[in-house]
Protein backbone atom coordinates (compact mmCIF):
# COMPACT_ATOMS: atom_id res chain seq x y z
CA UNK A 1 0.00 0.00 0.00
CA UNK A 2 1.00 3.60 -0.55
CA UNK A 3 0.05 5.54 2.59
CA UNK A 4 0.09 9.28 3.36
CA UNK A 5 0.34 10.21 7.04
CA UNK A 6 -0.70 13.86 7.49
CA UNK A 7 -0.10 15.56 10.82
CA UNK A 8 0.35 19.12 12.13
CA UNK A 9 3.33 18.05 14.21
CA UNK A 10 6.03 15.41 13.87
CA UNK A 11 9.19 14.47 15.80
CA UNK A 12 11.59 15.83 16.81
CA UNK A 13 8.90 18.35 17.79
CA UNK A 14 7.35 17.17 21.08
CA UNK A 15 3.79 15.98 21.41
CA UNK A 16 1.75 12.79 21.52
CA UNK A 17 0.06 13.38 18.16
CA UNK A 18 3.36 13.51 16.32
CA UNK A 19 4.63 10.46 18.21
CA UNK A 20 1.60 8.43 17.13
CA UNK A 21 2.07 9.52 13.49
CA UNK A 22 5.72 8.50 13.69
CA UNK A 23 4.86 5.13 15.22
CA UNK A 24 2.39 4.39 12.43
CA UNK A 25 4.87 5.50 9.79
CA UNK A 26 7.75 3.36 11.03
CA UNK A 27 5.56 0.32 11.65
CA UNK A 28 4.00 0.31 8.19
CA UNK A 29 7.35 0.92 6.53
CA UNK A 30 8.77 -2.03 8.45
CA UNK A 31 5.83 -4.10 7.19
CA UNK A 32 6.81 -3.31 3.60
CA UNK A 33 4.43 -0.46 2.78
CA UNK A 34 5.38 2.86 1.18
CA UNK A 35 4.63 5.67 3.65
CA UNK A 36 5.12 9.41 3.16
CA UNK A 37 4.67 11.91 5.98
CA UNK A 38 3.20 15.38 5.38
CA UNK A 39 3.62 18.07 8.05
CA UNK A 40 4.18 21.85 7.97
CA UNK A 41 7.89 21.82 8.82
CA UNK A 42 8.48 19.61 5.77
CA UNK A 43 5.91 21.25 3.47
CA UNK A 44 5.73 24.94 4.43
CA UNK A 45 2.50 26.66 3.54
CA UNK A 46 1.43 30.27 3.36
CA UNK A 47 0.95 30.68 7.12
CA UNK A 48 2.00 28.88 10.30
CA UNK A 49 1.32 29.60 13.96
CA UNK A 50 1.99 27.05 16.65
CA UNK A 51 0.52 23.75 15.46
CA UNK A 52 -1.80 25.46 12.96
CA UNK A 53 -0.75 25.92 9.33
CA UNK A 54 -2.34 26.77 5.99
CA UNK A 55 -0.83 24.45 3.38
CA UNK A 56 -2.83 24.57 0.11
CA UNK A 57 -0.23 22.40 -1.65
CA UNK A 58 -1.66 19.36 0.12
CA UNK A 59 -4.40 19.52 -2.54
CA UNK A 60 -2.05 18.18 -5.23
CA UNK A 61 0.70 16.59 -3.17
CA UNK A 62 -1.74 14.01 -1.77
CA UNK A 63 -2.44 12.55 -5.20
CA UNK A 64 -1.81 8.87 -6.01
CA UNK A 65 -2.13 7.32 -2.54
CA UNK A 66 -4.12 4.25 -1.54
CA UNK A 67 -5.13 5.85 1.73
CA UNK A 68 -4.70 9.23 3.47
CA UNK A 69 -4.46 9.13 7.26
CA UNK A 70 -5.13 12.51 8.86
CA UNK A 71 -4.22 13.20 12.47
CA UNK A 72 -6.93 15.59 13.60
CA UNK A 73 -7.23 18.45 14.42
CA UNK A 74 -4.98 20.08 11.86
CA UNK A 75 -6.11 23.70 12.08
CA UNK A 76 -5.81 25.57 8.79
CA UNK A 77 -5.29 22.54 6.55
CA UNK A 78 -7.61 19.66 7.40
CA UNK A 79 -10.19 20.92 4.88
CA UNK A 80 -7.52 20.87 2.14
CA UNK A 81 -6.74 17.26 3.07
CA UNK A 82 -10.40 16.24 2.96
CA UNK A 83 -10.82 18.03 -0.37
CA UNK A 84 -7.76 16.24 -1.78
CA UNK A 85 -9.32 12.96 -0.68
CA UNK A 86 -12.50 13.89 -2.56
CA UNK A 87 -10.74 15.12 -5.72
CA UNK A 88 -8.44 12.09 -6.04
CA UNK A 89 -11.07 9.63 -4.79
CA UNK A 90 -8.75 8.42 -2.02
CA UNK A 91 -10.08 6.87 1.20
CA UNK A 92 -9.57 9.18 4.19
CA UNK A 93 -8.98 7.72 7.65
CA UNK A 94 -8.97 10.16 10.57
CA UNK A 95 -7.48 9.74 14.00
CA UNK A 96 -9.39 12.16 16.22
CA UNK A 97 -6.79 13.04 18.85
CA UNK A 98 -8.52 15.78 20.81
CA UNK A 99 -11.04 18.57 20.97
CA UNK A 100 -9.18 21.67 22.01
CA UNK A 101 -10.47 24.11 24.57
CA UNK A 102 -9.43 27.71 24.88
CA UNK A 103 -10.47 31.22 25.80
CA UNK A 104 -10.49 34.57 24.09
CA UNK A 105 -9.16 34.56 20.53
CA UNK A 106 -8.32 30.83 20.64
CA UNK A 107 -11.91 30.01 21.49
CA UNK A 108 -13.02 32.10 18.51
CA UNK A 109 -10.66 30.22 16.18
CA UNK A 110 -11.94 26.85 17.42
CA UNK A 111 -15.51 27.97 16.73
CA UNK A 112 -14.57 29.09 13.21
CA UNK A 113 -12.95 25.71 12.63
CA UNK A 114 -16.32 24.06 13.29
CA UNK A 115 -17.60 25.64 10.05
CA UNK A 116 -15.71 23.10 7.94
CA UNK A 117 -15.15 20.29 10.44
CA UNK A 118 -18.40 18.68 9.26
CA UNK A 119 -16.96 18.38 5.73
CA UNK A 120 -13.77 16.74 6.98
CA UNK A 121 -15.74 14.23 9.04
CA UNK A 122 -18.23 13.59 6.21
CA UNK A 123 -15.39 12.71 3.86
CA UNK A 124 -13.78 10.22 6.27
CA UNK A 125 -14.39 6.52 5.65
CA UNK A 126 -13.46 5.83 9.28
CA UNK A 127 -12.86 7.97 12.35
CA UNK A 128 -10.60 6.45 14.97
CA UNK A 129 -10.70 7.63 18.56
CA UNK A 130 -8.51 6.57 21.47
CA UNK A 131 -11.55 5.60 23.51
CA UNK A 132 -15.33 5.68 23.14
CA UNK A 133 -15.35 7.28 26.59
CA UNK A 134 -13.64 10.34 25.11
CA UNK A 135 -15.82 10.27 21.97
CA UNK A 136 -18.97 10.45 24.09
CA UNK A 137 -17.57 13.31 26.16
CA UNK A 138 -17.02 15.51 23.07
CA UNK A 139 -20.20 14.31 21.33
CA UNK A 140 -18.19 12.85 18.46
CA UNK A 141 -20.38 10.89 16.04
CA UNK A 142 -19.62 9.16 12.75
CA UNK A 143 -21.10 6.31 10.72
CA UNK A 144 -17.88 4.34 11.20
CA UNK A 145 -16.54 5.44 14.59
CA UNK A 146 -13.91 2.98 15.82
CA UNK A 147 -12.19 2.69 19.17
CA UNK A 148 -8.48 2.60 18.33
CA UNK A 149 -6.21 3.05 21.36
CA UNK A 150 -2.63 3.96 20.67
CA UNK A 151 -0.11 1.19 20.98
CA UNK A 152 2.97 0.94 23.11
CA UNK A 153 6.27 -0.81 22.39
CA UNK A 154 6.34 -3.28 25.28
CA UNK A 155 9.89 -4.32 24.43
CA UNK A 156 11.32 -0.81 24.47
CA UNK A 157 9.35 0.12 27.60
CA UNK A 158 9.77 -2.72 30.07
CA UNK A 159 9.96 -3.18 33.82
CA UNK A 160 13.38 -4.77 34.28
CA UNK A 161 16.51 -2.89 35.39
CA UNK A 162 15.32 -0.28 37.90
CA UNK A 163 18.58 -0.28 39.87
CA UNK A 164 20.67 -0.07 36.70
CA UNK A 165 18.60 2.85 35.41
CA UNK A 166 18.89 4.70 38.72
CA UNK A 167 22.65 4.21 38.76
CA UNK A 168 22.85 5.47 35.19
CA UNK A 169 20.81 8.60 36.02
CA UNK A 170 22.45 9.23 39.41
CA UNK A 171 19.25 8.67 41.43
CA UNK A 172 19.41 7.22 44.94
CA UNK A 173 17.90 3.76 45.20
CA UNK A 174 16.32 4.74 48.55
CA UNK A 175 14.17 7.57 47.19
CA UNK A 176 10.56 7.41 46.08
CA UNK A 177 10.59 8.96 42.62
CA UNK A 178 7.56 10.70 41.10
CA UNK A 179 7.74 11.18 37.33
CA UNK A 180 6.05 13.59 34.95
CA UNK A 181 6.72 13.40 31.20
CA UNK A 182 5.35 15.98 28.80
CA UNK A 183 6.00 19.06 26.71
CA UNK A 184 6.40 22.23 28.77
CA UNK A 185 5.03 24.68 26.23
CA UNK A 186 1.95 26.82 25.77
CA UNK A 187 0.40 24.37 23.32
CA UNK A 188 0.40 21.78 26.13
CA UNK A 189 -0.86 24.09 28.89
CA UNK A 190 -3.38 21.39 29.86
CA UNK A 191 -0.79 18.95 31.26
CA UNK A 192 -1.26 20.32 34.79
CA UNK A 193 2.33 21.01 35.82
CA UNK A 194 1.17 23.88 38.06
CA UNK A 195 -1.14 21.47 39.88
CA UNK A 196 1.69 18.99 40.28
CA UNK A 197 4.10 21.54 41.75
CA UNK A 198 1.46 22.96 44.08
CA UNK A 199 0.67 19.46 45.32
CA UNK A 200 4.32 18.61 45.92
CA UNK A 201 4.76 21.78 47.96
CA UNK A 202 2.06 20.48 50.33
CA UNK A 203 3.41 16.97 50.83
CA UNK A 204 4.02 16.20 54.48
CA UNK A 205 6.33 13.31 53.76
CA UNK A 206 9.96 13.03 54.80
CA UNK A 207 12.79 13.93 52.46
CA UNK A 208 12.96 10.53 50.80
CA UNK A 209 11.10 11.57 47.63
CA UNK A 210 11.97 13.38 44.43
CA UNK A 211 9.96 14.66 41.47
CA UNK A 212 11.50 14.36 38.02
CA UNK A 213 9.96 16.47 35.24
CA UNK A 214 11.00 15.31 31.78
CA UNK A 215 10.30 17.74 28.97
CA UNK A 216 11.11 21.13 27.51
CA UNK A 217 9.33 24.14 26.07
CA UNK A 218 8.66 27.84 26.46
CA UNK A 219 7.01 27.38 29.89
CA UNK A 220 9.92 25.51 31.44
CA UNK A 221 11.47 28.63 32.99
CA UNK A 222 8.13 29.62 34.51
CA UNK A 223 7.74 26.18 36.06
CA UNK A 224 11.30 26.33 37.41
CA UNK A 225 10.50 29.71 38.96
CA UNK A 226 7.35 28.28 40.50
CA UNK A 227 9.30 25.37 41.97
CA UNK A 228 11.74 27.82 43.57
CA UNK A 229 8.88 29.94 44.89
CA UNK A 230 7.44 26.79 46.49
CA UNK A 231 10.87 25.92 48.02
CA UNK A 232 11.06 22.81 45.88
CA UNK A 233 14.36 23.48 44.12
CA UNK A 234 16.03 20.57 45.99
CA UNK A 235 13.11 18.22 45.42
CA UNK A 236 12.36 18.77 41.72
CA UNK A 237 14.66 17.88 38.85
CA UNK A 238 13.92 19.44 35.46
CA UNK A 239 15.76 17.29 32.93
CA UNK A 240 14.91 19.31 29.84
CA UNK A 241 14.56 17.38 26.60
CA UNK A 242 15.42 13.69 26.88
CA UNK A 243 16.33 11.56 23.87
CA UNK A 244 14.00 8.81 22.72
CA UNK A 245 16.77 6.35 23.54
CA UNK A 246 17.15 7.53 27.15
CA UNK A 247 13.46 8.05 27.97
CA UNK A 248 12.77 4.41 29.03
CA UNK A 249 15.44 4.73 31.73
CA UNK A 250 13.45 7.51 33.43
CA UNK A 251 10.34 5.36 33.51
CA UNK A 252 12.26 2.37 34.89
CA UNK A 253 13.92 4.56 37.51
CA UNK A 254 10.59 5.98 38.72
CA UNK A 255 8.07 4.58 41.19
CA UNK A 256 4.94 6.57 40.34
CA UNK A 257 3.96 8.29 37.11
CA UNK A 258 1.71 11.37 37.35
CA UNK A 259 -0.51 12.99 34.71
CA UNK A 260 -2.59 15.75 36.42
CA UNK A 261 -4.17 17.08 33.20
CA UNK A 262 -6.71 19.86 33.70
CA UNK A 263 -9.14 19.63 30.76
CA UNK A 264 -10.27 17.45 27.86
CA UNK A 265 -7.53 18.76 25.57
CA UNK A 266 -5.73 15.75 27.06
CA UNK A 267 -7.66 12.94 25.43
CA UNK A 268 -5.56 9.86 26.13
CA UNK A 269 -2.12 10.20 27.68
CA UNK A 270 0.40 8.12 25.74
CA UNK A 271 2.83 8.71 28.61
CA UNK A 272 0.53 6.70 30.88
CA UNK A 273 0.87 3.75 28.51
CA UNK A 274 4.65 4.15 28.50
CA UNK A 275 4.59 4.11 32.29
CA UNK A 276 2.30 1.07 32.38
CA UNK A 277 4.54 -0.88 29.99
CA UNK A 278 7.43 0.07 32.28
CA UNK A 279 5.59 -1.51 35.21
CA UNK A 280 4.74 1.75 36.98
CA UNK A 281 1.66 2.82 38.88
CA UNK A 282 0.04 6.01 37.62
CA UNK A 283 -1.96 8.82 39.21
CA UNK A 284 -4.10 10.55 36.58
CA UNK A 285 -6.97 13.01 36.34
CA UNK A 286 -10.55 11.80 36.02
CA UNK A 287 -10.89 12.95 32.41
CA UNK A 288 -12.57 11.11 29.54
CA UNK A 289 -10.01 8.96 27.74
CA UNK A 290 -7.26 9.63 30.29
CA UNK A 291 -9.03 7.58 32.96
CA UNK A 292 -9.46 4.59 30.64
CA UNK A 293 -5.74 3.82 30.97
CA UNK A 294 -5.82 3.47 34.76
CA UNK A 295 -8.01 1.04 36.65
CA UNK A 296 -8.53 2.73 40.01
CA UNK A 297 -6.97 0.82 42.89
CA UNK A 298 -5.64 -1.80 40.47
CA UNK A 299 -3.09 -0.13 38.17
CA UNK A 300 -3.05 3.26 39.89
CA UNK A 301 -5.30 6.00 41.18
CA UNK A 302 -7.76 8.29 39.40
CA UNK A 303 -8.25 11.66 41.09
CA UNK A 304 -10.57 14.67 40.59
CA UNK A 305 -9.57 17.15 37.90
CA UNK A 306 -7.66 20.30 38.83
CA UNK A 307 -7.44 19.29 42.50
CA UNK A 308 -3.97 19.69 44.04
CA UNK A 309 -5.16 18.48 47.44
CA UNK A 310 -6.53 15.26 45.95
CA UNK A 311 -3.12 14.69 44.36
CA UNK A 312 -1.46 15.25 47.74
CA UNK A 313 -3.72 12.62 49.31
CA UNK A 314 -3.10 10.13 46.50
CA UNK A 315 0.70 10.47 46.58
CA UNK A 316 0.79 10.33 50.37
CA UNK A 317 -1.33 7.17 50.41
CA UNK A 318 0.88 5.45 47.85
CA UNK A 319 4.09 6.33 49.67
CA UNK A 320 2.56 4.98 52.89
CA UNK A 321 1.51 1.77 51.09
CA UNK A 322 4.63 0.87 49.12
CA UNK A 323 3.35 -2.65 48.53
CA UNK A 324 0.54 -1.12 46.49
CA UNK A 325 3.03 0.76 44.29
CA UNK A 326 4.59 -2.56 43.30
CA UNK A 327 1.23 -4.34 42.93
CA UNK A 328 -0.26 -1.59 40.77
CA UNK A 329 2.87 -1.52 38.61
CA UNK A 330 2.73 -5.25 37.93
CA UNK A 331 -0.94 -5.02 37.02
CA UNK A 332 -0.23 -2.05 34.73
CA UNK A 333 2.46 -3.98 32.87
CA UNK A 334 0.09 -6.90 32.26
CA UNK A 335 -2.61 -4.51 31.02
CA UNK A 336 -0.20 -2.85 28.58
CA UNK A 337 0.92 -6.19 27.13
CA UNK A 338 -2.58 -7.68 26.90
CA UNK A 339 -4.46 -4.69 25.50
CA UNK A 340 -2.07 -2.17 23.97
CA UNK A 341 0.81 -4.07 22.40
CA UNK A 342 1.94 -2.98 18.95
CA UNK A 343 1.05 -6.23 17.19
CA UNK A 344 -2.61 -6.13 18.28
CA UNK A 345 -3.25 -2.51 17.29
CA UNK A 346 -1.24 -2.65 14.04
CA UNK A 347 -3.27 -5.60 12.74
CA UNK A 348 -6.51 -3.73 13.46
CA UNK A 349 -5.28 -0.55 11.76
CA UNK A 350 -4.13 -2.44 8.67
CA UNK A 351 -7.61 -3.98 8.34
CA UNK A 352 -9.13 -0.46 8.42
CA UNK A 353 -6.72 0.77 5.74
CA UNK A 354 -7.89 -2.03 3.48
CA UNK A 355 -11.47 -0.89 3.89
CA UNK A 356 -12.60 -3.39 6.47
CA UNK A 357 -14.75 -2.62 9.48
CA UNK A 358 -13.74 -3.91 12.92
Automatic annotation (TrEMBL):
InterPro entries the UniProt entry points to:
Glyco_trans_1, Glyco_trans_4-like_N, Glycosyltransferase_grp1
Name residues in a coiled coil. Answer: none
| An example molecular function term from Gene Ontology annotations | glycosyltransferase activity
Q: Which residues form the Glycosyl transferase family domain?
A: 163-335
**Superkingdom of the source?**
Bacteria
Q: Tell me where in this chain the Glycosyltransferase subfamily 4-like N-terminal domain is found.
A: 15-137
This chain belongs to which protein, by name?
Answer: Glycosyltransferase family 1 protein
